[in-house]
Amino acid sequence: MLPALEVKGISKKFSIRHESPYLSLRDRVMDLFKPSHTSHEDFWALRNVSFEVQPGESIGIIGKNGAGKSTLLKILSKITPPTQGKIIGRGRIASLLEVGTGFHPELTGRENIFLNGSILGMKRQEIISKFDAIIDFAGTERFLDTPLKHYSSGMQLRLAFAVAAFLEPEILVIDEVLAVGDAEFQKKCIGKMEDVSRSGRTILFVSHNMAAVQSLCTTCLLLQRGELKSIGPSADVVAQYLTSMESQALNTSGFIQVHPPDSEKPIRTIEVLCDNNRSSVAYMGCQLEIRVSFKAVERLTTPVLGIIIKDNYGTPLIGINNRHYQGNFVTPPLKEGYISMKIPYLALFEGAYHVDVHLGDEFKDIEVLQDCFQFTVEPLAFSGSGELPPKSINRMFMKDITWMLNSSRHVE
Amino acid sequence: MQEPHTFEIKPRSAFAFNFKELAAHSELLYFFAWRDIKIKYKQTVLGFLWAVLQPLLLMLIFTVFIGRALQVSSEGMGYPVFVYSGLVLWLVFASGVTTAANSMVSNAAIIKKIYFPRLIIPIAAVLVALFDFVMAFAIFIVILFFYSTPINLVVLLYSWPLALLLTVVATAGPGCLLAALNIKYRDFRYVVHFLIQVLLFVTPVIYPLSSISQTWLQYLVALNPMYAAITFFRLPLADAPPDWILISISVGSGIVLFLIGLAYFRRTENYFADIA
Which of A263, B133, B224, B248 falls 20 to 30 Å from A74 in CA-CA distance? Predict the structure, then answer.
């Protein structure tokens, strides 16, 4: 049987301009007189990537941020053409880089189903025949003729997923769209997608969530700096990825230099302190402090520090920012400084954890660093018994839980 | 089970036009146009009436201030009929070009997330403008009866469809060109509006071209692709045959602009998702 997808030597080059992201006509006109006005830099997001996907196979694509996962997806979805190489596909292909693409708040649920379905590549007749199943899956039939803007965000998401779930292409390309939405509905969607893969369809799935990748895909390919690092059974490739992440984060000094001092990006350094000592090795119940120093190009009126702590499988455990605790920092606008987050009692279980750092100004992210550092938590008994619950189940622990046994019968 | 459909993804040539693919997406074109029409008139109290009110009010204003005050001649028909017949097509052009020019930017979120032939987006904008035309046209018929304007029905049979076709060509060309330019250079957002306003006054919409005495200026004004469309539209009502040289200039300019617009759009289409 011929492969469903043959990817042959795909490369993609971007020209990065160091001026503003948009060209203005003035720049262009100025270029005529001063050819060196803006500098271009070639950046290869993908370099000579080749692989094959058999029909009915589901392949996970993993790698760090900037490894070229999204670019590969965009090329597979025809959104952007490759610079070199070609892909031969056999079957109808559909891609889901986002749920609810084209949803419009002014249109009703019914109208949005048709619009979104059509954008995803369904024929009108096909949408009509699946319409009842879609609204049934989404569970929003009561609001069919209500404009989408009156839907809660959860309802919008369910509707969006429902339309996507009824796509029936032979090849389905999915981005990490599952990272949103309530857990129960996520499960329903993953279940639906597993049905899809069981029914002989080919799936390409990109995710940071190693647990989801492993449960959905038999084969994985690992991208590293635009190149195909390895391809093979999911368990092996995921393990390879995780060890590569660890070795990279082996820096246990607790000090990370993020950008060089002359960079325009704001986040300068990150410090991890365990009981006031710089170290990325912490222990259960210690005092953990994360300090992020920044130097921005423009003044920040309301600096916000957001921290997401994820377990070794990429599943987020906590996502918080200073606003959740004490509101905004009150400060005159400032360009540089550092924000510290101090956790007085670290209730994470033993294991390795990855951290995303968000630096923002009020509601806007200024810089987001995903998986920018790792820290490990060493085991330490948190109760008098000295015994720890099993590591395989626990990610976090709760102190001071009282257990009681009473010999009298339970009385309501 | 249908025949497995094979596809190929490779570096795209800048000039190859995939008409087959465009045809396969005709339903999506319909959905985009339908969405834009719905959204345009949602949350407006008068709704579709706006499509009619705009040319009607403009007709009134021009009739009072230009027709009466300046005593402009109007090729044998009453000035209100003359100006409305011009405006009804002009507004297709004006709103078609403006929305098409902004269409790629306003749909950037979709463009970055999913593939379909991008040409659908500016073309849908032109279709929306045509929808407004249908409304305004109905009023035009009423106006014709009201002023009991004599009509040459034989001429009408070929000249009106021709006028509409020329309008679509004249709108789609600059629409696609500006849509592509706009996504690359956001300056064009400001240019479009200004351009359309200026063009109204250098187009024989509110005055006949014959009122310009210099020949070279007539030729220059005839470069406006809407000149031919509007002239053909007025032909069944006019008392004199058109100047075929001027018409040819205008039609030629429209076709050239159409081809340039399409070619430039096609050439930059590949990179829309990267720079949008």
Answer: A263
